[in-house]
Design a protein that fits this description.
This protein has 144 residues and is an alpha/beta fold. It has 5 helices and 4 strands; from the N terminus they run αβαβαβαβα. α1 crosses α2. The radius of gyration is 15 Å and the shape is globular.
Length: 144
């Protein structure tokens, strides 16, 4: 992890811990090895709260977020997302390259990867249907 990631993760988790009270079932987030976490995306705070909860239970495990490419367009937002281990995905095209990066993080770093299958925040907080992916078959080169 980079120094920037370490500092931002610590600042973020300390700030969120001030606002988050008791969390029931936190022991379910304690694990060893790589994991894919699928969550409902209902708030701008989701990244921060999830990062806090995962780091509280697994302080030495890297956490990555699959994030829409639009979040990387403005300089500060790009810096922020890259510093907090967000991986850009173009939701209008083949996302195979992003999936390959995630696969690499899971295998080589035994990291946690957080995915929001709805593809965007829900304004009501209710669960939406997941976004349909394009039917794309990887080439043998992409699978290596």
């Amino acid at each position: 992890m980079s120094l920037t990631n370490t500092i931002l993760t610590q600042l973020t988790t300390k700030t969120v811990s001030f606002f988050v009270g008791n969390v029931k079932g936190l022991e379910n987030l304690k694990f060893n090895g790589p994991r894919i976490i699928i969550v409902n995306h209902s708030s701008y705070m989701d990244h921060f709260v999830i990062l806090y909860l995962l780091k509280k239970q697994n302080p030495n495990q890297a956490v990555y977020f699959l994030t829409k490419k639009e979040a990387f367009e403005k300089p500060f937002s790009r810096w922020w997302h890259l510093s907090l281990n967000s991986i850009s995905v173009d939701r209008t095209k083949n996302a195979m390259s992003s999936m390959m990066v995630l696969k690499d993080k899971l295998i080589t770093e035994k990291a946690v990867v957080v995915i929001y299958p709805e593809g965007t925040r829900t304004p009501t907080g209710n669960m939406y249907f997941g976004k349909m992916a394009q039917k794309v078959y990887p080439t043998s080169r992409e699978l290596k």
